[in-house]
Amino acid sequence: MVDPEFQVSGGAGGTGARYEDIGLLARHSDDLAGELGAISVQGHDMLADPDLVASALLNPDGFARIEAGLLRALDGPEGLTALSLGFEQRAIALRTVVASYRAVDEERARTMETLRWALGYGLGTGIKAAAAGPLMLLPFVPPLTAAGLLFGDDIDLEQLVTDHPGIIDTLVGMGPGLISSLPGAPMVGDVPGAADLLGEFYDDGTYSVTAPEMNVFGTNTDDSDVSMTKPPQGFGDLIDGLDYRNEAVNAGEPDQIDVRVITHPDGSRAYVVDLPGTKEMNMPWSADSPFLNDMGTNVHVLGGDTTSRQHAIAEALRMAGATADDPVMLVGHSQGGMVAAQAAQDTATGAFPYNVTHVVTAGSPIGNTDVPAGVQVLALENARDIVPHLDATDNPDRSNVTTVTFDDQNGTIGDNHGTRSAYLPAAQALDRSTDPSVQAYRDSAGAFLNGDAVESKVYELNRVH
């Protein structure tokens, strides 16, 4: 098999990191300007030193030469005062450059968001009020259905959207404007706002967590598969474990996650949590789902909510023995990656009370999630997978968010999104990557990739209404 060609953005080698480097250079320039300015002030004080002035009576020429030399050193063209002002001007220029570039990037994103919103609003105002109710759900129904409503039935919609996943960005991005145009509907400004509105139709409920020793069949369900009994050594092993759990969880069955407890020779522990994707594609008008890995969780997380699934994951970590200080890596596919990123965001407020240091996502729309700078994120995205486009935005180019895109057209939406068909082969190939952002992420994740032993525990999560 030929390794895929990776496109890497963000991370240690990304534009955001370069912006941060320029900002750091500006701060250093400020500091140096301040230090040189302080020395210049001290030098000017020396010009009026009483002892130096008194020496003029005994040696006028020497006094004049000293004064002239000090003035040149302090206020000459290359003196301390000029250098101080020069470094201060450089700091201002550097900050201006960074601010300008960031403003251009942000304006470009806002322009695209506004354009899509306007398209949606225009579409909504051109449709009869009788059709308004069903159309409120247009951006959130399965993408093929939405594309069929817009493009008709004379084309291969699956081929269309997998060849051009950007269509999904447009469809989802039109959603807020479309909703805003409907009679009696509130004004919705962005995709998270639209998802938050739709989330009112899904009861998130609360949760229950069943530990391995409490399995209803009276058996211990700790993982014994080879992919779960060896400490992970790289990206391939991480996604291999995720794929194992993802394949074991089926629609109509309770949500299950793995907690891999990694022990190091010194006795310290690190925790890798495997979070499968959506298994229950329930619509708002269906009965309340008992499964946490359902469409309702997708909608709530897309809206930026802290979900019952996230609380259940925190409880599973507690039951596995994790403390608030132990390093935690959250590895998620699809919805699992969304919940992982949201949990990492919530560490900043204490809503997820664990030390999440790393996140790995596979095929997850996480562009709107504000992950703290101290959490390293690796986002794997198949360029033919439509699911990462469901937030209608690109992942941010930041030093702590590395997005790795590869092109693997398997012919169907499901196969392009699958862990086994698309993301596991890509992760295995990524282990051989020499990209600086990928290498920096790998180096930072040593607590999870250099373990001496591993114990994998299975936890069953359920929704309680």
TrEMBL record:
Keywords: Hydrolase. InterPro entries: AB_hydrolase_fold (IPR029058), PGAP1-ab_dom-like (IPR012908). One of its GO terms (molecular function) is hydrolase activity. Residues 309-406 form the GPI inositol-deacylase PGAP1-like alpha/beta domain. It comes from the Bacteria. The keyword Hydrolase applies. Transmembrane segments: none annotated. This is Alpha/beta hydrolase. It comes from Plantactinospora alkalitolerans.
